[in-house]
Amino acid sequence: MVTCKETCAAIIALHKNGFTGKDIVATKIAPKSTIYRLIKNFKERGSILVKKASGRPRKSSKRQDRLLKRIQLRDRSATSAELAQEWKQAGVNASARTVRRRLLEDGLVSRRAAKQPFLSKKNIRDRLIFCRKYSEWTAEDWGKVIFSDEAPFRLFGASGKRLVRRRKGERYHQSCVMPTVKHPDTIHVWGCFSSKGVGSLTILPKNTAMNKEWYQNTLQQQLLPTIQQQFGEEQCIFQHDGAPCHKAKVITKWLGDQNVEILDPWPGNSPDLNPIENLWSILKRRVDKQKLTNSDKLQEVIMKEWVAISQDLAQKLIESMPSRIAEVLKKKGQHCKH
Prior knowledge:
By secondary structure, this protein is an alpha/beta fold. It has helices at residues 5-16, 21-26, 32-45, 62-74, 80-89, 96-105, 121-133, 139-142, 212-231, 249-257, 276-288, 295-307, 311-319, 321-330; strands at 145-154, 186-194, 197-203, 237-239, 261-262. One of its GO terms (biological process) is DNA transposition.
């Protein structure tokens, strides 16, 4: 039992004033065992402070701990066993388990590396140019932009990640596994959205190449009706990435002929700047929950879940653009958390 310092001091004060252990117990100030223990400790050591146990000596000094931290930060992917070997060369003979404990004390936790597109120097430069150009834009400004992209959907829940909660020994339980096949059917879609909600979504027919002819037809049949429906005569801006079929001269000319303004210059390898990527992730999670094994049913569910996306969700994603821009600038062109 933990006894407060004031109670301990009161017990010793009574003892010094001639009270016996029995007399102090009668006051019910603390349990009997606590009272007699405190009196015994006071008689033996002249103090009521609990002597700190020596324990096992720490294998490393603070300076050596800092060295371990520097070694880990120099190579983030180094395993605890590899770090233990390198630490040993510096004079610390410690196990991999000890290495993990020291790193945990510094807040360095082992986690799966996040996957992001590789950013070349040109990519970083282009991202900074883009973000500086639109750094003053408000959420209202971004509300006039229609974002677009293509995305693949696969059968057997392979489109996105899936987490399950399981007990020990249930790793291969039927309800805890994600079925896979060697060559799953893949459905490619093109979609667009703005702060006013989701726009058109079209499914690319099988054995159809994603070329400039297909893309122009998609823009004609899907983008223009979305612009008319969501913006009417109001001016809006169209975003698409730098895929070859997007940047074809015939496409650029066609968009100009239709008086469609393009959001330029869009930087390469920058899905974190495109909020439609978040929309794809949400859509894939909803679709994957259906555990579909039929391609036709998959197409049906994709369309159904797409139109079910709320305008409120679309608007929140668009409103995140100023913070995305600010974060990329703060990180000097590197990926942002979005």
